[in-house]
Amino acid sequence: MGISRRAFVTSALAAAPAAGVLASMAPRSSAAALADDPVGDVVGKITVGYQGWFACAGDGAPINGWWHWSQNWSQTPSQGNHVIKSWPDVRDYSRTYPTAFANLNGGAAASLFSSYDDQTVDTHFRWMRENDIHTAALQRFNPNGGEGATRDAMAGKVRRAAEAHGRKFYIMYDVTGWLTMQEEIKADWTSKMRAHTASSAYALQNGLPVVGIWGFGFNESNKPWPPEVCQDVINWFKAQGCYVMGGVPTHWRTGTGDSRQGFIDVYRSLDMLSPWMVGRISTLADVDHFYRNVNTPDQAECDAHGVSYQPCVLPGDLQERHRLHGDFMWAQFYNMARIGVQGIYISMFDEYNEGNQIAKTAENGSQVPAGSGYWALDEDGTACSSDYYLRLTGDGGKMLRGAIPITATRPTPTV
To answer: Which of 115, 137, 222, 224 is deepest in the core (most CB within 10 A)?
Structure first.
């Protein structure tokens, strides 16, 4: 079985105050925020994390199983064998795959999509185009195991879809559990992934191809590298002419909580950094706590060291009922806009496993399997169309780049 997506950290981490709260909370202007790195494909833009890791038996993928749908990938997803927290709306896909879940409450068969189908990836990038989402960061885990051939193919599929829909993409390595990463990541870039930078759709920042590396400095046993190893990898990518974005711990700046100590110079050597936020916030009070005590001093630290700041914004775990029909997500957009951040990273586009997806999701109880217990987007009594969080993300991007005023009031209708 493959590595699961980022592990949640205890809720206490979200509430822990960080040191160094700024005395002044005055918002930065957009012009000041973008002064060091000019607007490009990540600075001044919305980037969505794109897993692209769902496969189904019979879809032709080399992995040949229910990748990331089932606990046991060799068996059809069912009420007792699944690893998803939200149910997708699959009505836009021309091909889906039947599961062993009960029929949807509305009577339709409970079917799922495969990311390996070209039409699925094309549909996702069409949604990005329709909702003014600029860039997708394709997640790439250790490619040297049984998942490697499927991951390699997904890079090509994402490239073609991005080209077709006028979107941008870049490769984002997640080094979780990749213990032999130091030399293998260089070899993978040189022999495979660098070729994709020839695409007109490959994201550029400051004229350089963007590469993401997620996982350096985390205080977790599956990310054991000392600072010098991480620094070597960053320096190598920079020497290849890349703009290096780093997915870093929430408390990178203080070296506490989820961050190991001794990594501050590693973090400061990145061109852009994006602290992880899933599992750290779940309420509006959490959002404002982080604005005051974490995000604002993070921005000041980045400014002082010439690093672009790209905080995470998340819609909230639907199954845990965090979303407040979009008010939770909009509060994050509002706070990041008034800080004047350089970019925003959405966690994530298609993360049905953690319930933090913005991609189309069941609107109401008629669209989830009977007896499954899945909440739909109307879980708090407010009707939301399946594309609501795509539209909300698009409006957040408009506020980020100044196309609409900075406002605490969510402008996006739920339907």
So the answer is: 137
Cα–Cα distance for residue pair 389/350, rounded to 1 Å: 11
Q: Which of 80, 156, 72 lies closest to 115 in space, CA to CA? A: 156
Each residue's pLDDT tens digit, 205-238: 999 999 999 999 999 999 999 999 999 999 999 9
The model's pLDDT over 362-398, given as tens digits with 9 standing for 90+, comes to: 999 999 999 999 999 999 999 999 999 999 999 999 9
Predicted TM-score (pTM) of this structure: 0.91
Q: Please give the single-letter amino acid code of residue 348.
A: M
Sign of CA dihedral 37, 41, 45, 49: negative
d(CA 44, CA 308): 10
Q: Across-strand partners of 97? A: 112
Closest CA to 326 of 249, 378, 254: 378
Which of 46, 37, 400 minimizes the C-alpha distance to 244? 37
When pLDDT is cut at 50, 70 and 90, the band that residue 1 belongs to is very low
What contacts 31, CB < 8 A, 6 or more positions away? Answer: none
